[in-house]
Sequence to fold (50 residues):
Amino acid sequence: MAEVLQLAFAAFVSVTLVALGVYIGALRALDVFYSEQDSIFLSDDAGPRE
Fold:
């Protein structure tokens, strides 16, 4: 039974990490696509646009 729980937990952690990576990647792609300036993830002066 413990092995099944370990396997389930490992699968859950793996799926969570992959989902976070996809989410952050999508946010970066959309940010670069929709903004005229550099991505807020890459620029030093991220903040409200003037």
About this structure: The chain has one helix and no strands. The radius of gyration is 18 Å. The chain has a mean pLDDT of 79. Helices lie at 2-34.
